[in-house]
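Newbie here. two chains, one complex. Structure please?
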Amino acid sequence: MNRKNFFGQYQYSNSPLHLLDPRVKILSIFYIIVFLFFVKSLWGYLILLAFVIILVLLSKVNFASAIRSLKPILYLLIFTVVFQIFFTPGNVVFSFHFIKITKEGLNLAIYIAIRLMLLSFFTFILTSTTSSIELSDGFQAIISPLKIIHFPSEDVALMISISLQFVPILFEEADRIMKAQMSRGADFNSGGIVNRAKSFLPLILPLLLNAFNRADQLAIAMEARGFVVGGKRTPYRAMRIKVKDCIFILSTLAVTLFSLFRWTII
Amino acid sequence: MNRTTRYITRIGVVAALYFVLTAILAPISYGQLQIRVAEALTLLPFIFPETVIGVTIGCFFANLLSPFGVIDMIFGTFFTFLAALLTMFLGKHKKSIFLAPLPPILINAFGVSLYVVTLAGLTGNGNTNLNLSVSLKYIFQNLSLIPYLTVVAWIGIGEAIATYALGIPLINALERRKKLAL
């Protein structure tokens, strides 16, 4: 269990990507990922792949860790490629008994493999260059305009910051309870899958009960300090859009527009 | 004590707990089958209605770590919210606890596989214009239901183990304590 990495892949550095405004980063990455579904040419995907590689290099994060971020989708990737190659109808380029490989199948396999990889890489860029505090500030800022439709965005923002504050506390507590239960003979790693799922009850139950107690204490403490639900609050860290944020937005737009053109080279 | 302050803090800790259980405990895996232990928490709205929002926020942040990232954060979170809401209604109408895991199992299995299949292009329609409606049409018109149903079974079984084997004992234990102190 690595304590520093509870938001997954965050890697500290002073790169230009780390210093971007979190709102800009979140919205740009969301935009690119939605955009991925509108790219129709291999050329477009290659441009985006080049863009993501430039971003990884700019962000100074460990390149190998970017590749490792693909590990969870490895099986899906293999399954997809095999499925596309063998089961897509079209012009047969290779056949051996019942196995037929078509041109369309090969094309599709490449397309989809690149798209899945891009999806994973862009999310990796976001989570590896943005700390948990910045992420939560960013999301809070993004949902704040929803106030207009009477969405309780201030309350939700508060819930997000409370939960963020509790993540390291609960993590430590989970670790402690796990060790305590193991010293009493609890076994989290053996037996069939159902028994293993069941074995987590002695961990989750005390964790949940303690968490609820802490939540109630926090509520009392907050009210004792004059907290009012729905009252106006001001942030400690103010976020400002700077020149580099504009540059990032413009380059994202340029790359996405560029990849839309139907180039006749390929 | 004001009820809503307590609700806000409880929602906060439930979200944190969901995130911690997803991020820190490696999923129990059994070959290809992966189980998210945190999914046991989706039964909490059955006895604590306010935790619907907590589970949703927790799922949103936990999905940051998912390989599908942003797509999971939007659709996966929405499905979790929907399932939690239905579980809450089952609890409000005093239905049997054994019905409570059904919304998370069914909604996640059928819903999440929809976009997994679409993203992976497993619809077998041979076009790269992977538009959700086009894929859906193909799934139901052609006999490409097999990959879809495989993913449904795959996700459904994992979810069923997390909720039935861990979630229900958890809710039962909490309910006994709820009468005493909570």
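Moderator note: The mean pLDDT of chain A is 82. Chain A touches chain B through 80 residues (CB under 8 Å). Thread marked as resolved.
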